[in-house]
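Protein Record: Sequence and Backbone Structure Tokens
======================================================

Structure line: whole-number tokens from a learned vocabulary of local backbone shapes, matched to residues.

Purpose: to set a sequence beside its fold so the mapping can be learned.

___
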Amino acid sequence: MSRLAVEDNRTLSFEFYPGASADPVVVLSHGWGMNARAWDDVLARLCDAGSSVLVYDHRACGQSDKDFRDVSIDALGSDVVALCDHLSLASVVLSGWSLGGAVVVDAASKLGSRLKGLVLTGGATPRYTQADGFPHGGTAADVASTVAALRADRLSFLHGLYFQGVFVAPVGEIVKQHAFELALQAGPAADASLGALAHIDQRDIMSRLDVPALVITGDQDGVVPPGIAEFAAKLLPQGKLAVMTGCGHAPFIEDRTTYWNLLHGFLKEIAG
């Protein structure tokens, strides 16, 4: 584990695994309140395949410092760029899950020619709430109510989310407990990142990301509706949609083999 200061003396926790391949580095950005450990199965497979991988904890999550003042999507996206700068990464594929999807789209808009590809898994982007020309998702009031419920009873909210809400395919109680425990590592400051999804609108950014893009959704995702992924895949100039049958909001955990085949195939296409 390494650390990088990005706001005064506050630091991010990150891990960089150099691979044998000269292909673009895969950057993994987790969902709201999670941390790098959520990606462990994907991380191991990427390393075994020879890929270089960067995985990290968002502000106020996991092993990163908890007292960040700015936890906006803009700040989280800029952190990805700062990590790439710190490691002198000249070629990257950004992969984001859930809120991490919005984070990597923001980062993608700032990386310029270093961006070689984009992967969104249950990504809460280009919007999470309904707006003119975007009938998908809930409302800003729904997001505010969710954050209020979280603030009122954090333990019960997170237990319900990971034992009842995220997974649709049978993953077992151990997996649910592990995800719940990862979520408990996030500090209360991270809640504002979730709240930011009420109004974030990345449609203009997304329409200009002219790189290979893979958009993956579970057909039974109850956290980020599949319609959002379908919209994103059409909006991205080189977007490709993959719908994973029988999966909810964490298809990379619910159906590891299918997810890996999709991701690995996409990375091979980029590498040529």
